[in-house]
Structure formats: structure tokens, C-alpha cells
Structures
1.
Amino acid sequence: MSADQKPNQRPELAALDDATVAQALTRMHLIRKFEEAAEASYMRGLIHGTMHLSIGQEASAVGTTLPLEAHDYILSTHRGHGHCIARGAEPRLMFAEFFGKETGYCKGRGGSMHIADVEGGNLGANGIVGGGLPIAVGVGMSIKAQKNGRVCMVFFGDGASNEGAFHEALNMASIWKLPVVFVCENNKYGMSMDIGRAMAVPNVADRASAYGMPGHCLDGNDLAGVAAVAKVAIARARSGEGPSLIECKTYRWRGHSKSDRNLYRSKEEIEEWRNQDPIRRLEDELKAHDRFDAAALMKLEEDAQRDIDAAVEFARACPDPDPKDLTRDVYAL
Amino acid sequence: MPSDTLEAVSEIRELSYAEAVREALAQAMEADERVFLFGEDVGVYGGAFGVSGDLVHRFGKERVIDTPISELGIAGAAVGAAITGMRPVLEIQFSDFVTLAMEQLVNQAAKIRFMFGGKASVPMVVRLPGGSGTGAAAQHSQSLEAWFAHVPGLKVLQPSTPHDAKGMLLAAIDDPNPVLIFEHKLLYKTKGHVPAEAYRVPIGKAAIRREGTDLTIVGSSIMALKAEAAAERLASEGISAEVIDLRSIRPIDFTTIAESVRKTHRLLVVYEGVKTMGIGAEISAMIAESEVFDFLDAPIIRLGGADAPIPYNPVLEKAAVPQEDDIVTAATNLVRRGEA
Ligand SMILES: Cc1ncc(C[n+]2csc(CCOP(=O)(O)OP(=O)(O)O)c2C)c(N)n1
């Protein structure tokens, strides 16, 4: 914390030192720029298939993962670029994967919806809504059996919380007190289905009580607030007390995927959430407390943009996989 | 007996199929602490078919884990444990309930290695008691192995003898891929010679159970045994049948089938799963596409389960899957047709 900062900072923000905040902001910028570059690449025909952008949800991805340690695991979703970057994955290898190149994290076999960075503890995004939840239970079992002190954080959407997999996974993780943190990114919609029509209780976090675990319902656009709660849940998991359910209420600015014409939500609603931009909110708060000046903040953003531009150029220049290797990794030998 | 039984060093003793599976589980757990068992009622209850028996007392509740009734959840948990360094062996109480776990087995376990560009593997084993004949009717009697054999990334086994049940399970636990083992419920009490040591029966290798010259009968699981019994009767009628026990559906040992057909010139495929779109179709097509086709003296015959759910009534239940008599009749017709 800088010596000259103004008093009356809320404790959640005060708890994050300048280096940590700078890292968090950098990652939020990287996510935003990654998604914008992905969109631009799509328009330029560089991307095959579809994509699910998480612009607007950056504080949730970065805040929840900020208190994780290097050896901890995450499991992600179809809207997973942000989680990947938040965990420190290299954007150039992510773009290479996204562009289907042999140099990508998964050698071009996974693509946007399946990026995994196994060495970095990212056990994969998932094309199946809710698919990662039961897997996280097994990762938790594995951590417990190996007594390696790690934690597994698994992301999913509000829509996924209506899948049987969610209920089975939360119950199992709880009865066995597994070191798992369940993070629901509630962006109000599962494709076009709004949660008010899809769920019988108002908050996903309310469901935690059925599984005997703490449920935290958060403002998911508040980086410091999210990080503070994640820290508690991660500590609880690590100490053997069992899982928690965190619900980050947030919003995706873009459509569900590239084919979305956004007919189910109003311009006003989107505008209202854009005004709660998690990146600007954090920057404004940091400036108000004199922790960073405008020039320092601008530099973080520009550096992120440069990294992303270089990542796209790297990925474009990489080779496609060789069709003769098509079945190479179907089975382990 | 196949040559991989290590007969020379093994003590001669008989075990039931269920005991053979249990012995494999115990030996795998003793040898490797990453191995754990997992499933509904596998602990104190000892497994719905008594397969896990006393293992919870020998290895503790941490390694023989009773799960809630959550097939999707437990299949997924096995995936998660497998990709992070464990060797889970999961029991799906009746193979029919695998329908609830399809997502994790088909979309996750089978594809993770491929989707991750070879950077992770999923060394898990799923044991699935299947098949008809117990009067449990349509939702507890199916033979679903062909479904899974259709999925690249999975391996699918169907051991028919106590010897293979043990040796193939140990091979499956060693295997770095997801392996599904369909155990026929009617076989659990059958007895046979099982060596005491921890031997392996290689995955993807069929066994020639009986040599013959007039036709080849290919089957697996209980159908391989029925085919052997049928071959005995055919012999007394002067027909010499070669019987191949597939043991492994994926990968399939086409070489052994092809060599046999080259010799006998006739092929009968017998399987308990529904006849249409099944294992018989695949084997027939493989022959049709290969140069062995030119060796055929008669059209291939497929003898599969009826295109109907397994009924409750015992007379109907028997009629719904191939029986020894059906094999004898089909084999006789096949040989006569080839001679005509
Ligand atoms: C099992 C399954 N059902 C349906 C889909 C199609 N689908 C992909 S994303 C999505 C919406 C998911 O909503 P949510 O879980 O809230 O996540 P969000 O997209 O809002 O991040 C749907 C229906 C799928 N991929 N998997």
C-alpha cells in the first residue's frame, strides 16, 4: 500500500497491496483486450467455429482466482477465456489454440471451448454446460487422497446450476468435505433464458443451504469484494472444512455467442450494466484513494493491449496441425 | 487356455467370476495406493452383486468409497480423480444406470486426452454389470457395450471367464485410458481356474476357445460360453466350429477373426445386444471390406438380441436374446447353405 493514500478505503480494497492490484488490473485488461481481439479476428475470418465472450465479467474471473496459489487447480466453462488468463495462461498460446494451430495449448484440437493448460493447473474449459462440476469433485478427492494441500475452483454459469450435475457435485463435495470452491458467474441469462424464468429461488447461492455449505451472493463486478470472499472460501477449502458456493452477479456485454441477435434483452439493460464496468470501477476507486495516478493506470492498459496484439500476430503465423496426426492423441500409449 | 496365463507358476484353484474380480481389485489396491474403488453400496454392503465383498474391511472407507446415488456425479468424479493422479475404479451398480452417466463418459472421459492435445490422460476403469436372464426386465437387463465401442477414446471389454475377469481388470487398471468392463450378471457365480498371482490378459486380444474348420463363431461375454456349448453339440452332428471369444470390443482383434474365417470360410456372429446397428454389423462390415470377403462360402449370419426391450416374462426374456439352440440352428443352416 502506498504511504500517501487517502484514508477510509474499504477493507476489501485495503487488503490488496499495490502490486496485487496492478496484477489484477493487468489481467482484467488482458481479458478485455483478448476478447476484443477475438471478436476482431472473427470478423477477419481468422476464427473457425463460435466463441463465447466474457466482456463485462472480468472482475469475477480475476477476483476469485486472485487468492489461489500456483499449484491450485481450476476448471472452466464454455465462456472460459477469462478464467484461463486470470490463472496466468499465455495469451499467445491461447490465441494459437483459438486459431486451431499446432502450437496452441491443446495443439489445435480443443479450440475456444476446450482450452486447458494442464501444467498451469487449468484442467480445461468445457463445452458441456455443468460438465466440469462433477470433475471438480474427483479433483477434490484426489487432492484429499494425496494430501497435497491444493484447492480446486470450478466455474459455471447460472444456467448450469439447473443441471443435475450441479446438484450431485455439490452434495458429494459437501458430504466428503472436499477442497472445492464452486463459483457461479451469474450473468442473468442461460443463452436467452433469464434466471427469473429458469430458477425457483432468486439466487443461485440460496441453493448452498440444501448442501450444507456457505453460499455467498456477491456483486460480481467488484474486484476487491470478490477477492475478499474468495479468500475466505479458499482458506476454508484448504483447511479441510469443505466446499463453498460463491455467486458473482455480473453481466456479459456481448451476445451469448456469435449467432446471438440479442432479442431477449433491452439496450437500456445492456447500457445499465456497461455503466458498472468492473475495470473502470476499480480504476476510479484506486484514483480516488490516490493509489495509482491516471498515467500509471493508462500504462497498464497499454501494456496489455501490446501483449494481446503480439499474441494475435504470433498465433496467425503458426502452422496448422498435420492431418496425418489426426488420431495421434485419441489413446494414451 | 491361452498362453498368457502363466500356468507354470500358478497354483491351481477355482474361483468364481465375482471372486476373481475381487481378487484383482485387492491386488491392484495392494500394489498401488492410487487405486481406489468407488460406487453405490460397494462398501459395507459389499456391492449389489457381492463383488467388492470384504474389501472395505481390508482397505478402509477411504479407499472403498460408498457414493450417493448420483451416477453422473460419480462418473465425473472418477474423471477428475484420474486426470489428477489417481486410478479410480468405479462400479455402476447395473450397467443400465450408465445412461445417467453418459455425459461424463462420452463427452469428458473419452475426449479429454484428445481435446487437450495429448497433455492429459484419463486412467479410469468403470465396471458395469450387464445382461439379461435375471428377470429384472427392461431397465436392469440391457447389453449396452456397442454404444461405448462407438466412441473413440474409450476401451470396452467383456470378459467371459473368471480367469479373464481378473486378468483383464488388472490390465485395465494399468491402462492409461478410460476402460469400461461389462461383466455379465449371470457369470458372477460361474467358476473357473484363476491363478493366484497378479497376471494380465492383454486388452485387444481375442481368445480362440475351440478350434474348428467348418465355420467360425464369434461371441463375447456369455455368448462366447454359449457358443462353446453349441460347438460341442455341433461336433456331435459332424460340424466343426471354431469359437472365438472376442473379450475386447474396442479395440477389436480383427486379425484373429480374419484368420479364422480364411480357414473356415463361414462366419456366425453372436451377441446379446440388440441386433440392429450392433457388434455383428461391425464385424460383418469389416469382413466385407477386407480381402477375407473372397474366402466366404456363404453369407455371414448375425445372431443378436431382439429389437425389443428385455421383457419380464421368462419365456419372452429367453426369446429376446440368442440361446444355445439358436446358435446350433444358425450354425447348421450356415454350413448347409455354404454346401448347397
Ligand atoms: C448440456 C448442455 N446443454 C446445452 C448447451 C448449449 N448451451 C451452451 S452455453 C448455454 C447457456 C449456458 O448458460 P450459463 O450456464 O448461465 O452460462 P453463460 O453462457 O451465461 O456464461 C447453453 C444452453 C450445452 N453446451 N450443454
Note: The longest strand of chain A covers residues 180-186.
2.
Amino acid sequence: MSGYVDFSLSADQRMIRDAAADFLAAQSPSGAVRQAMESERGFDPALWTRMGVEMGWCALPIAEACGGLALSWVEVALLLEQMGRRLVCSPYFATVCLAATALQESGNATACAAWLPRIADGTLRATLAFGETGIGWDPARVTAIARRTDSGFVLEGSFRHVPDGAQAEVLLVPALLDQSPALFAVPAGTPGLRATEHRGMDLTRRTAEVVLPEVQLPPEALVAEGGRAATALQRTEALAAIALAAEQLGGAQQCLDLTLAYVAERVQFGRTLASFQAVKHRCAEMMVRIESTRSAVTGAARAASEADVTTAELLLEAACAKSFASDAFFFCAQEAIQLHGGVGFTWEYDPQLYFKRAQAGTQWLGTPDLLRERAAAALLGDAQHLSCTP
Amino acid sequence: MTLATTDTDEAFRAEVAQWMQTHLVGRFACLRHRGGPGDEDAYPALRKAWEQLLAAGRWTCIGWPRAHGGRELSVARQIIFHEEYARAGGPGRMGHLGETLLGPTLIAHGSAEQQRRFLPGIVAGTDYWCQGYSEPGAGSDLANVQTRARLDADTGEWVIDGQKVWTSLAQDSQWIFVLARCEAGSRGHSGLVFLLVALDQPGVEVRPIRQITGTCEFNEVFFDGARTPAAHAVGAPGEGWKVAMALLGFERGLSWIDQQMHFEHQLALVCDAARATGADQVPALRARIGHAALGLKVMHYNTLRTMSAQLSGELSREAYINKHYWSHWHRDLGKLAMDVLGLEGDILLDDFSRTRLQQIFLFSRSDTIVAGTSEIQLNIIAERALGMPKEPRPAR
């Protein structure tokens, strides 16, 4: 990367952010979130359609040749931040940030042409079966095995935590092929494939266990193999972690906003809670963490938008954004519960929803501890601890 | 204006690097990575000679307007200069208070006569300034100014009585800018005057304060009938607060870039120590090193956000958090440095690579106190950025 980054937003970027904020404030208020999370599918199909078809959000980072808008990660991050603020229950993250990114990073034009136009126009839900552990994607930890047959491939494996795995119409699946990483596109209707949804603590994002017992795949199911697949998946992990960090930033900001509104109203000992220095300082600490996270996410999103960003740089940017965002979100959600007092502990008030989303996201696409280890390894010039088991 | 660099900017980078490589040698070689907060007592005379060498190369006041002796370099080039200066180990600048605080204030608010009288000495690296804001007992309550200034009608001079404290580099400066109360009975922000006062006169006494580090870079400055001409008041008498606050506004942006380059060097020293002691193999310490590295990256991004917002004329929220952020980051680095050294960290040696880490540990305790304590910073964030109610204040 070269030059200095101007962090100001363009008029178009501000428009995307503000339109998303307005749309989601109207379409995904707390009541709608609660309704969607308690519904059988875990999201509101009508809202998902409006997001994809009417607002065109699924097309954001997808190449124009595949029916997308070819916008950068700066725009994606701005959108995800607004989604995080509202805890939108939707397969957007799995479809666009994970699956579409993996397809684009694979560089396989045929696979992109097969799947991306339908993702871009908001009519196809997809996901990527990785992020099994807090460490993110690691070539050394691929357990699914694929082998070549006369008619294509046979793939066998199981994945414990696949976001929106039960709702996806196509799953991108990493597996070892000839002892090296490969990526396959597996339609949900493939005979044998089973996706069983977990009962999660965080009800706002569903995950599923996906089992593939020797499923037969046609030759065109192979999206990438070898070094190409490994790099594509590594970059996808980093980009998705940056998107998740943006989402967490929005969640953290909303925790602060909810808290500020509450402490401004609530009167104790004859004054509003907001007038007590002990309360003000805790809110100010939240803002310190939120704004430093906003800098980290903005910097990472700008870096991810540079054409010549290397995979190593991308991973470090993701480590920075995701470690700060996960910690900030958890801290702010925890503070929101505390500063709401007794009601903060109830199901009825919203802090618990953010608290659970914060905890779930912390464990996914790189835990803060492992991301800090990644930064240490980069700085100290060694990597012996990089693939330690969480 | 933009923060993006061009190809010719990169040529400029090479020019700065080359100049530093050619000049920070010989008798100046011992200045590499010396000076700056916590190490201001290092080689003051030699560092003044270095300032004059910088001036001869036209590397002082590079962002100032040409009319005032500067080079009017773009923000991108100023950033490059700061980066390359620090990368080469350029010593802490003795003239930074004049160059980054007083000079810009005089350019914005000073009279033509004040500009002619005071700016050339700053550019030339011959006149050194210190800042007379804080007072004993006032702490972060900056407007609680007790130092008095009265205009003596007979001589046409301001007569100053009172005391300032925490005055960095006063022992190495010839001049001090003083915030004093010029209207009897006035309180708080009103009735103040911003005065330029010579330190070398009978009514001024500078007493060093020995600090936690064992060294002295802060001082107490006593004024007992000290004098300065009427024309050395900047802005209108009574409106000194406005001038003082404008000056603090200049403290942002570029000086942070400079600071971050020093922090980066300090983190590298911590990594070197970690390799030497084996702490680089301890997972818990590695995690803290990683956190420090990522935190520094965030600090850099905070600065770019603030500078981008300033250039586009926006008021940005992160500007409120910068002081709190960097001071706590640096304090954590100091503790990390000592934990990396282990038991050895307690032993004082003549090896500066060790001393530096001990300095960071001890001196960074002042980072969360000076220029507004962390508690004051959190009040500012809560009240100004988040719009929470002000603390009730008893009538004085």
C-alpha cells in the first residue's frame, strides 16, 4: 500500500450509510428483531427480499460483470455497521460477506458466473462452511476430504458451526483434495447433505451443523484448488472479519446510544443518572473504545479496498479491526446491562440481545487473543504460536 | 488539500532521509533517539546546536507560511518529514513549543511587530520557549489562574506576580508565554491576558522539580514583579483565554505523527528486550505485545481520521478520545516493558537501551495527568461529545 489514506467519506458513501440507517431504523426495530429471531427460520423473508431486491445491498461488493455494483469494503463496512446497530436477523453476512467473497476471491469466472448474479440480485442465499474455531480459517485444520471420481467428486465431512447453514441454498465448502486445500460449491438439495440448526444463545444469528456423508458432486462443483484455494479462503477470512468488525462496531455504538437515552431519563437520588460522574465516565470509556474501533475498522476497510493489498497485510488489518471491535462490543454490551441497572438484566430490555451477539461474534473469525498473537508473530518475526489450539 | 502522497512526495521522502543520514553523524550521532518527553535532560546544549543545523537545512517550521520564514509544505510532506526524521532517530526537538505552539499562535493572533520580533528566532533555532499555563493548586482546572499582571502606567510595562508549575524545558528556554489575570476580581475564563515574558530577568526564578524518574524536566517558575513591554500582550488584554485555547488547538495532528513514530521505536525496543529475555516465548506477554502493536496502528488511524476531518472542515468525534487513548496506550507499554525485563528491570545500568525502557515505565505515569488528566478527559467526552449534563459546580 502506498500513500496516505484520506478517511473522509464521499457524498455517495454518506448516502449509503444514511439510507441504510433510515431503512433499518424503520424496518428492524427491536420488536421486529424479536419477532424474526423467534420465528422458525430465524429471519424475516420479506425484509431480506427488500434488502436484496429493493435496496440492492447484496450487489454492493460484487463485480459488475456478475451483476454487482463493484463498490469497495468501505461501503460494505458502512452498511454492516448499520446492520449491527439494529441486530438485523438476515442471511446477509453469510451470503455476501462469506460466500460471495469466497467466490470472488477464488478468481473462478465460471463459478462466479454461476452463482454471483443470483446473489447480487438478492434471490439466492448462500454460506461458507468455515470459521469452525476461533482461529478462523487454517489450511492445517481442514478435515473434510474430497476425492476425484469418474463423474466428478465425492466429498465427505462435517462442519459444526455454519452461519445460516440451514437456510443457505448453496454452501461453499473447503475440503482437502489430493492433500491440498480446495473449495467446492454444494447446492443445499444435494442428496445426503444434512443441515441441523443449533439452538443458540444468540438468537439473532442462526448457525447449523452441516454433515456431508460422501455426497456426489459434479465436476463444476470445484471452485478452486491448491494455493489458489488457500489464498482465496485466507483473504475471505480476513475480509469477513473486517465486515464482522464493522457489524460489531454498530452494535457497540447502539449499546452506548441505548444507555445514554436510558440514563438521561432515569432519576435516582433526585437527579438523572446521566448527571453522576461515575456514570458519565463509564459512558465516556465506551466512546473511547467505540471511536478507536471506528478508526480500526475504517483503516482496515480502506486498506482492503486497495488493489495491491497483500494477504499478510489484509490479515493484520483484520486482526486489528476484529480484536478491537470484539472487545469494544463486549465491553459496551456489558456496560449497557450494568448502567440499565435491574432492567438491564431482563429479557424485555434490549441490552441482553446485544450482549449475546457480542459474545457469539467474539468466538468467530479469530478471537481477540488469537488475533493479538497473530500481530505479535508479525512483529516479532516468528510464527511458532500461530496455529496454537484455542 | 489532501493526505494522499504523490510520486514527487516520495522523492521528498528520500531527500529527508538522505539529509538525516548525512547530518545526524559525528558529534551529533549520540543524539539518535534521545530527548523528548522523559528524556529532555539529554544533551540540551548539543540538541540546540542540532536545531541550528536543522535550521540551516531549512527543516524547521516547514509548515509555516513562507512570509514568516516557513516552507508552506503540504500536510502529506509534513507527515513525511516527521516520519523520516523519527525513523532516522532524530532527537527530541528543543524548539517544538515555539515551532508548533507559539509560532502558529503569533501567526494567527499576534501583531505584525510581534511576528517580526519573535518568529525569526524560532525559525533559526536560536530562541527557545516554554509554556506558562498550569499553576500550583489549579491542576487540570486551567482557568483557575492566580498569576496577576498589571499594566504600569509609568513605564508602559506589564508587571507580573505569581507562580507557574510543570513548565517543561524552562531551564533551557529564554522565553515563556504566560496566562495571567489582568482584571482584578475576574474569574475563570474572563479577564486574562496572554503575555510573552523574558525568563532572564531579576523578577523571574526557575526551580527544577525532581520527578519520579530522578531527573528534572518540569520546573516551577516564580514571578515577583517580573516585567514585559505592553506590546508583548498577544490579542486584547482580557481575552487571553481565547488565545490560549487557540494555541492548544495547534497541539493536534502532526505532533501526534511524530509521537507515534517515537512510540513505534519504543515498541521495537520492547520487542528487542523480549527476545533478549525470552519473554517473546511467553504467550501472555506475546498477547500484550500484539495488543500494543495493534493499538499503535489504531492510534495512527485515529490521527488520520482527525486530520482528514480537519482538512474537510468537519468536527470529528474521535478528536475527543485521542489524548485518553494515547496516554493509556503509552502507560501500558511502560508496564509491558518492565514485565518483559522481569527482575532485571529494577536494576539501573548505564546502558541506554535499558534506561529508556525504565524511563518509559516511570515517565508514562505523567501521560495520564499532564494536559488534562484522564478524569478530565472523560468529563470532556461525556459533556461535550456525548452531551451528558455538566457536573454541578459550587459558586466561587
Note: Residues 51 and 354 of chain B are 27 Å apart (CA to CA).
